[in-house]
Structures are given as C-alpha cells and as structure tokens.
Amino acid sequence: MSAPSRTRAPRRVLWTLLVLIIALFAGIGATAKFGSGQWSPKLGLDLEGGTQMVLEPVLADPNAAISAGQLEKARDIIAQRVDSNGVAEAEITTQGGRNIVISIPGQPDAKTLDQIRKPSQLRFRAVLVAGSGIPESAATSTATATTGSPSATSQAPVTSAPVFTMDPAATAPATSAAPATSANAPIPPALTAEDPTPTPGATSTSTSTATSTASATGTSTAAQPANASDTAWVTPELVKEFTDLDCSKAGAINDFVDDPAKPLVTCATTKAEKYILGPVELDGTDIADASSGYQTGQNGQPTSVVEVRLSFTGEGTTKFAAVTTRLFGLKADQTRNRFAVVLDKQVITAPSTNAVISNGQASITGSFTIESARALAQQLKFGALPMSFKLQTQDDISPTLGKEQLGLGLLAGLIGLLLVVAYSLAQYRLLGLVTVASLIVAAVTTYGVLTLLGWSHNFRLTMAGVTGVIVAIGVTADSFIVYFERIRDEVREGRPLVTAVDAGWARAKRTILAADAVNLLAAVVLYVLAASNVRGFAFTLGVTTLIDLAVVFLFTHPVVAILAHTKFFGGGHPWSGLDPERLGAKTPKTRYAGRGRFVTPTLTSEGKA
C-alpha cells in the first residue's frame, strides 16, 4: 500500500479539525458583526472593572427589622439572577447587616439592572392550568387549556406530588374528617401532547369553554371571574403564552409581568412544569413560620414521612381557610385543586389540597428528602418578607488588578510555554516540533472558545481564569509526553516506526483519557463547591482539558501518523528523535537456518519473532 493511501485517514481528521476551527472563528465574526459579540474574550471585574450598586431594602413596615437570614436569602436570590446571565464572575455581598452590594463586570444594560433590582416576593396563587414544561401544539392547547380537567386530557405519569394537609401535630383528629388524597397522586397536566386526538366530547366541551372564556374577558357585559380558581381568567392570550412557553430555555419568563391582581403564566423552578395561575390570594407576610422535619404519627413518634410545616398569621389563617375550602371543593379536578407557591415569578412548589385548613397550621408532604424539605422551608420562611430594593448608589469601579497584572500573567504563561518548547526540542529533537504545533493549535482553539463563550454564556476571564489557562499548558504537555514516550518504548522493542506509532497510540490514549478525566472531574467538583474567582479557575481548567483531548485526538496523533510514513522520521534519522540506535532498540539476533543459510527474524506488531 502506498504512503498516500496509508495516510488518507489521518489527513481527513486534520481537515475536519481545520473546518471546526474555521467554523469557530466564523461564529465569532458573525456575533461581532451582527450581534453583541467581540473578537476578544470578555474580561472580569478584576481586570476590566465594572459597575457597583448598593441596594437598600424597602419594607412594608419601615420600623421592621431585617434578620441576617432574610438578608442572606435575598442575597442568594439576587446572586441566582446574576448567575442566570452566565459565568459573569459578579460579586454579591451584604453590607452593614442591611444593604446588598453588587459588583458586576463591564457596563450592564438597563434590562439587567432592572432584573437585579426588582422585588423578590413570595406569593400564593391557585393553579388554573398545568402542563409539561416544553411547548405543545396550539391545537391541543386550545382544546384543553381552559378547563384544566383531567377528563379532557390523558393522565400524566404517576409521581409523588406535594400535598397540603392539616398539621397532624396540632390537630390530629381533624385530618380524618376530610377525605384524603394520596400523596402519590399523579400531577394531571391540563395540556399534554400524549393524546393528540382527544375524544369528540372533550374537544367540543373545551372549545366551547375557550370561546365563552374569550367572550367573557373581551366584552364589558360579560360576567367577571367568581374567584381566583375560576377558569374565566384564562383568556386566549394566556393560552398562547402558555403554549409557546419553553421552560427549558434560560430567561423564558423574564418578560412576564408579575401583577398580583392578574393571572400569571410561569414555570416551576425544576423546569418540569408550566402553569397558568390565578391572582395572588396570600403573600409572604401571611406566613408566621416554616420548618421541616419528619412527620409525627398519632402515637407521638416520628415517622419516615418528611414534611414542611407552615404556620400562618391571624389574617393569613383566615385567608388560607377560605382558599382551602374552595380548593378542597375542587378535589375532583386534580389540576385546579392545587395551590402554587411563587417566589421570584417561579413556582417552587404546587401542592394539592386534601383538607380544609382553618387553624393556620398546614403540612406539605410529598417526595421530599430532608435536605429538599429544609431548603423549601427556608424559602417559605425567608420569603415571608416582601422585600423590594431601592438603588442607594451606583458607581463605576476600576479594576482591582488591571491590564498590567493581566500582562504579567500572560508573560508568565509565555515563559512556561517557552520552557515546554525548549524541553520538547531537547528531549525529542525535531519530533518536538509536533509539540510546538499542537500547543499553537490548542492556544488558538482556547482563545476562540473563550471568546465565543463570552457571547453565548457571558463568560468573563478573570486572573484566576488566566491561571487555569496557564496550568492547562502543563496538562497538554503531559499528554504529548505520554504519547511520545509510548512510541519510543515500542521502537526500543524493535518495532518499525509505523507499527510503533499505532501500538503506542493504542496504549497511550487510555492513559491520556484517564488523566484528563481526573482533571475534568476535579474541575467540575471545584466549580460546584467553590465560590467567587475560584469558579473561574475551575471553569477554564475544565474547558482547556476538553480542548487538550480534542487536540491530541484530532491533531497530534494524525500528524505523528503522517510523519511516520516519511523518510526522515520513518527511517529513524538521528535528528528525528526516533533513532532506534540512539533509543537502544533491540536488534534481532541472526540464527543458523541450516544448509549454510542465516536468517534474521522479522518482528511482528507484538514484538515476537
């Protein structure tokens, strides 16, 4: 087989890599020209500076005090809002036990600033429609949205849904007075795509209801909704919003207005469900306390059921009693029997109601772990303060490190790169040029990926991120050393270079994959558990580890495979770095074969004569 035919596959791999790199930078160019992208990576707060805002809480009662837990919860909510825009390396801290200080890299737009300052309020709304968090066809939605009745749609898979019950610790006998609804009752989505052909009766009923609902809301003479659970709230406009809503998309509900006097289309925090909710009936000020733990049985001993316990204020008790009376009367409709808890426009839980709760002591049970129940209790308790913020100050801040420190960091990276190149040329001679070329490809790819991530995920490169990129030089060099040393080991065993390259790659790639998997796992764990700039280091380390794998598989190995078929490298030239004599390769011994003949055995790919 000729050399060109033997190198056809490696050449195809190199062409594939070239096309990917061209596509990467074409994408960067398109975002720079037609969008908000740029040709260089975005810089973080420590290298570019940004905007600092001090937010002061505005309370319904000016004399009310703010606990450290409430302020910290508000800080966490704002941090989640900022992080939802991408890996921006923002800093959110508390100040003086009352204010929240937000430092954002660059110059955020008005929409971002408004999203950060908007009120964070806990509200309770009745569920009118519930469905899967992904969009559904308009036809199915129109046919079924307005009733929320399980008869108009197919049932959802059985899940352990949360349920409102009376607190058994406070009123144990009262729970037996109300028919119980199983905690494992299915969540009945009012809009599903599982049954695209509903029964004729259901279709006609739903369509007529939709028409009457639209008429009721579109004319001044039509009857107004009787209560917050009335399906007359569901207008065709709400149905369209509900149908088009895709909860899996970031910022899907950002543009929806959370007006307490009107219905709301929104998503669950898990993204699994979306809802049309009625007007607000209770808010966070109606909650006196919330706690979590194991439910107590009638014998006074803890059971294995995890619950979240709610205590309402005097006014909240009256409101909640009226709501549960109405919702319990809708127990046949498993959608409209639910009462959603909404924080920051997202539903954190939507339990069914299986009792009339008139004593202000409620229990939420379902598929909770003790950790998830504790988290929900904190949200309910700390969301009890209807906390909104006013902007106290907003200032431009200078970078804490600046371009000079960035230059020094890049200089350190360049010195490290030159040391790796010098070592490669000294150890592997001209084969070390493959290392140089691979590092250049890795650097270009890393630059392009970080730049594109700045546009797509608002990633900003901090000094910690630069450190992660510098560390990646060593990670990449390790992969080359492992590969080259495996090839040289095979040459020492007496194999021809072409065979040595194949055998060495088969063994080296397992080691490279294992080493990079450990690095990637460490980066993921560090990113999840760490905070502040350490996450920037972990993020860049993880990205560059993946780029290292791509370069080794798509560039280094194909290039070495092509060079192995050249006379200079394949023939073992002394300056190639693969000279068998210099490496101390084994020479097969000549043996007498009889009749005056001497034979030199030929080594197989396994190194056997």
State the separation between the terminal residues, measured CA to CA. Answer: 23 Å
Rg is 33 Å
Instruction: Tell me, briefly, the overall form.
Output: elongated
Could you tell me the mean pLDDT? 76
How much of the residues is beta strand, in percent? 15-25%
Structural class: alpha+beta
Produce a short descriptive summary.
The protein is α+β, with helices and mostly antiparallel strands. 45% of the residues lie in helices and 18% in strands. It has helices at 3-6, 8-34, 45-48, 68-83, 110-117, 138-144, 200-218, 236-244, 314-328, 370-382, 402-428, 432-456, 463-492, 497-529, 533-563, 567-570, 580-583; strands at residues 42-43, 50-58, 91-95, 99-105, 122-132, 163-166, 264-267, 273-283, 287-296, 302-312, 339-343, 346-349, 352-353, 361-365, 388-397, 460-461, 591-594, 597-599.
Explain what this protein looks like in three dimensions:
The chain has 609 residues and is an alpha+beta fold. The protein folds into three domains: 215 residues, Multidrug efflux transporter AcrB transmembrane fold (Up-down Bundle); 67 residues, 2-Layer Sandwich (Alpha-Beta Plaits), CATH 3.30.70; 266 residues, no CATH class. 45% of the residues lie in helices and 18% in strands. It has 17 helices and 18 strands. It has a five-stranded antiparallel beta sheet with strand order 7-8-5-11-12. It has a five-stranded mixed beta sheet with strand order 9-10-14-6-13. Strand 11 and strand 12 form a beta hairpin. Helix 2 packs parallel to helix 12, helix 11 packs parallel to helix 13 and helix 13 runs antiparallel to helix 14. The longest helix has 33 residues. It is elongated and about 95 Å long. The protein starts with a helix and ends in a 10-residue tail after the last strand.
